[in-house]
Amino acid sequence: MRFRALSFLLISACFAPLAAAEPASRDMEQELARSLQEIGSNHLGLALNQVDSLLKINPNFRLAQLVRGDLLLARSKPITEFGDAPNAPPDRVRDLREEANARLQRVQQQQPLMAPKFLWQLNAQQHYAIVVDTSKSTLYLYENANGEPRYVADYYISVGKKGSDKLSEGDQKTPLGVYFVNGHIPRNKLSDFFGLGAYPLSYPNEWDKREGRDGHGIWLHGTPSNTYSRPPRASNGCVVLANDDLAHLEKDLQIGITPVIITNQMAWSDAADRNERDTLSKSIEQWRTDWESRNTETYLTHYSQNFSSGGLKLPAFAQQKRLVNSGKTWIKVHLSDVSMFPYPSQPDLVVVNFEQDYESNNLSNHMHKRQYWIKQNGHWQIIYEGAA
User: Fold this and answer.
1) Cis peptide before 204 (omega within 30 of 0)
2) Which long-range contacts link 367-371 to residues 24+ away (Cβ below 8 Å)?
3) Residue 285 and residue 297: Cα distance in Å, rounded?
4) What is the pLDDT of residues 185-221, one digit of tens each?
5) In a domain, 10, yes or no
6) Are the beta carbons of 269 and 277 closer than 8 angstroms?
7) Residues 6+ apart with CB under 8 A from 93
8) Which of 25, 39, 305, 355 has a CA between 20 and 30 Å from the CA of residue 109?
């Protein structure tokens, strides 16, 4: 007996080794894969034992429940389809097939050895960073190792019912972009639907607003108490984790600090990325130096013709800078805690955050600043600037 719908998913006996810090949910995926492999080898008794073990750990693992139902049904008749129970709701079976597919693909993935291209530089305050790959139903967690990302763990996740690249309120899509965890809503302030709790993300960000994207309420959150996990596309746009995984993850989340980069295709850093990062670092330093020089026209060459900030376009911004700088006899600008995150859905765009200490003969201030740098005609320029 074989399940034709899963025959393309059954994997070899060689499983990717677990990292030492992997959460328990990764073990459950491994056990589910072993069970499906036993089904593919027609060892139905062994498969049933493995599924029963999974359900003892978490009785609400609906995918495992479906596999168990098929195995019990196989005692009385041949099974040719995954989820072949009589009168099974087609949409629910389809969702669980998609979850099986996503989880088995995750089991086959090796632990990442390279850094993702979306984490060019972490600052000292960002102890961890998250990259979500919507196409692989996976959330990757990285720790900050002297400014460079180092893989810690990954988790199965669900995203929007209509996929990714959110455009508007109610489109049931998950946004793509560079965001930050900007709050925490505890379990006792939410309905059971959100599980262990929720961490709102900073959607829509400055680039989303510039591009006319709207909507709100994009969160990282858990699952209802009677649900272990949800299908890969099941939310209204949020990123959803099993409660056990959220409990494992949330100790590493810092409100207002942890970056969450959401992409529809994970990509890995290479020498070209590192060269571009170094080139952008030099452009940022030159921008700072030219600001200190009080040569306003040279300073303004760092700003794109498409620049905007707080409603100001480049002409008005330039006029304001010329007026302000005319009253300065000296300027000093110090930057610290610089972070750089390439934008996943917009080529040659990088989100840069830093702490800025500004001093002049008549003003002194400190601010947390955010800039969007874009590469145009071979040069990096600022297309947005404002307080973060």
Assistant:
1) yes
2) 370/206
3) 17
4) 999 999 999 999 999 999 999 999 999 999 999 999 9
5) yes
6) no
7) 66, 82, 83
8) 39
pLDDT at res. 3 = 47
In a domain, 116, yes or no: no
Residue-number span of the structural domain to which 161 is assigned: 128-263
Q: Which two tokens stand for residue 184?
A: 């925490």
Same domain, 135 and 257: yes
Burial zone of 69 (CB within 10 Å; 0-12 exposed, 13-18 middle, 19+ buried): middle
CB 360 within 8 A of CB 349: no
pLDDT value at residue 84: 67
Highest mean pLDDT: which range of 10-14, 56-60, 68-72, 184-188: 184-188
User: What is the Cα–Cα distance from 126 to 109, expressed in whole angstroms?
Assistant: 27
Question: Greater confidence, 245 or 26?
Answer: 245
Count the Cβ atoms, other than its own, within 10 Å of residue 294.
Answer: 15
From CA 376, how far away is CA 316, in angstroms rounded?
Answer: 21
C-alpha–C-alpha distance, residues 72 and 85, integer Å: 10
